[in-house]
């Protein structure tokens, strides 16, 4: 690239770095607590930033998104959006991930789908995703996403739900469009179908909502024990929309704990601490304030995940599964009654 061609990217990189410099510390608004460490032979999770999660019972290893390339804004705008195998290798190493069975792509935006092909080929995983997401997979084996994916020879079942993408405010959309355009990432502009996932397992059920949207038309076949709730850009929503997300994804699914994901600034490394997204890109202070109120109102704890280390994904006080399903029936009955009145 000539110096003249690089000039617009340079100017935009300066702009994004200047935006990033307008920062405060939003995490002080929430009480931090730690998830219990877990032996890797039990059902457990590992968090790698954004929506990249490993869920494993020691026998079957399922990763969501597999995004590890956390270049700075400066680097991304100058060099373009490109998967970086070194970043992936480092992330896998720190999380002690050597092999994966399945890699689920939630949608085709770059912070979800960029690294999927490399991550899958480096771990011998099969990628499951929408038609749009699978366009980015050229070497790894693939399967088209299905509403129900029973995994034979495994204790897991995977359910997928077309839950839609968070509706961005015009300013957020403009920032993102400009950033992706400046970084020559238009191949990742169309998210395709945006999925949430339910992973069922004899030890507990996990609902993963990568993008902060969960219509109440989605009916889970079983109650969720834990919701991994994507909260990226939630700080830009109206309070009533945040409450609606909580109601649909957490209360109506009978979840007993919430683990927030997609709240970190993925243009910084996640170790030793996980950096939160800073204003003006998001308003996490507002997100955390509202979520904390809802958490206290409903008695459902919000617990932040650690980076890399294995943590227990099911609360210790697990009720019998029959009570979970009673809860689901009660929630649905309440909704029908509310709709009638
Ligand atoms: Zn997205």
TrEMBL record:
<dbReference type="InterPro" id="IPR001279">
    <property type="entry name" value="Metallo-B-lactamas"/>
</dbReference>
<keyword id="KW-0732">Signal</keyword>
<feature type="signal peptide">
    <location>
        <begin position="1"/>
        <end position="20"/>
    </location>
</feature>
<feature type="domain" description="Metallo-beta-lactamase">
    <location>
        <begin position="49"/>
        <end position="262"/>
    </location>
</feature>
<protein>
    <submittedName>
        <fullName>MBL fold metallo-hydrolase</fullName>
    </submittedName>
</protein>
<dbReference type="InterPro" id="IPR036866">
    <property type="entry name" value="RibonucZ/Hydroxyglut_hydro"/>
</dbReference>
<dbReference type="InterPro" id="IPR050114">
    <property type="entry name" value="UPF0173_UPF0282_UlaG_hydrolase"/>
</dbReference>
């Amino acid at each position: 690239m000539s110096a003249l061609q690089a000039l617009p990217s340079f100017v935009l990189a300066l702009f994004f770095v200047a935006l990033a410099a307008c920062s405060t510390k939003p995490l002080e608004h929430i009480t931090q607590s730690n998830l219990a460490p877990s032996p890797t032979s039990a059902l457990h999770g590992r968090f790698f930033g954004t929506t990249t999660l490993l869920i494993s019972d020691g026998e079957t290893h399922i990763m969501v998104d597999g995004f590890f390339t956390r270049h700075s804004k400066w680097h991304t705008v100058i060099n373009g959006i490109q998967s970086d195998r070194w970043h992936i290798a480092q992330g896998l190493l720190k999380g002690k991930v050597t092999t994966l069975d399945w890699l689920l792509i939630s949608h085709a935006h770059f912070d979800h789908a960029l690294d999927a092909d490399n991550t899958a080929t480096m771990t011998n995983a099969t990628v499951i995703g929408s038609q749009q997401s699978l366009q980015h997979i050229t070497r790894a084996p693939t399967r088209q996403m299905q509403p129900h994916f029973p995994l034979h020879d495994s204790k897991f079942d995977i359910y997928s739900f077309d839950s839609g993408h968070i509706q961005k405010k015009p300013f957020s959309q403009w920032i993102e469009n400009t950033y992706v355009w400046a970084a020559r990432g238009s191949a990742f502009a169309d998210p395709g179908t945006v999925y949430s996932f339910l992973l069922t397992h004899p030890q507990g059920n996990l609902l993963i909502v990568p993008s902060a949207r969960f219509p109440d038309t989605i009916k889970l076949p079983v109650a969720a024990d834990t919701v991994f709730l994507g909260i990226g850009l939630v700080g830009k929503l109206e309070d009533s929309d945040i409450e609606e997300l909580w109601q649909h994804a957490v209360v109506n699914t009978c979840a007993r704990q919430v683990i927030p994901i997609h709240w970190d600034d993925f243009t910084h490394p996640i170790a030793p601490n996980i950096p939160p997204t800073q204003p003006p890109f998001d308003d996490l202070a507002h997100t955390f304030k509202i979520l904390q109120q809802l958490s206290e109102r409903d008695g459902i704890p919000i617990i932040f995940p650690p980076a890399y280390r294995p943590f227990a994904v099911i609360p210790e006080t697990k009720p019998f599964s029959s009570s979970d399903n009673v809860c689901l029936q009660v929630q649905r009955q309440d909704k029908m009654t509310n709709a009638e009145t």
